[in-house]
Amino acid sequence: MSNAIDLNALIVAKAPLLSQALGEMYPLTIAMTLPIWKLNGNVSQVEQALFNLVTQAREAMPDGGHIRAETANVTLKSQDVLRHLGVRAGDYVMLSVTDLGLGLTPEIQEHVFEPFFTLTKFGQDTGLRLATCHSICKQNGGAIEVKSTPGEGSTFKLYLPRFADASLPSEVVAA
User: Fold this and answer.
1) What is the pLDDT of residues 72-130, one digit of tens each?
2) Topology of 3-161 in CATH?
3) Where are the domains of the chain?
4) Which pTM was predicted?
5) How many whole angstroms separate alpha carbon 146 and alpha carbon 32?
6) CA-CA distance, 14 to 36, in Å (whole number)?
């Protein structure tokens, strides 16, 4: 079921759990756009995407490192961007997660959202983390993209549609 979700409130509510899951070697910085639009989506799925992206960032930095989560209001207009992302023009709420890890080659980037494609050693990961994020975005009318350079890290950006009726209350997220 789709609801109006305040992404900033969701991240603030989940930040202690995220930090605990990451551990001391992986400090998490959060940069939030204020005010943020409400997004249209399933709160459980958005939480899962957040956790999957943060976990993926941790895995990209085996020796520890900084992870940055960011929110923004984005209006997608460019036909090139729309064609690349496979979404309609309009307003989206963006969540990005950046790591300063190993980075991804262009060849790997082409396959990163495929089910069972894993970025870790065989047997250490199911290869479903990023495929699940891709599926969540598609189910909620959004998109996901990756920008990465080998040796310089990666940024994953989720775009979820802005909730159309801003007068309705957003779903309350429990801490």
Assistant:
1) 999 998 887 778 788 888 999 999 999 999 899 898 888 888 887 776 554 455 568 89
2) Heat Shock Protein 90 (3.30.565)
3) 3-161
4) 0.87
5) 20
6) 17
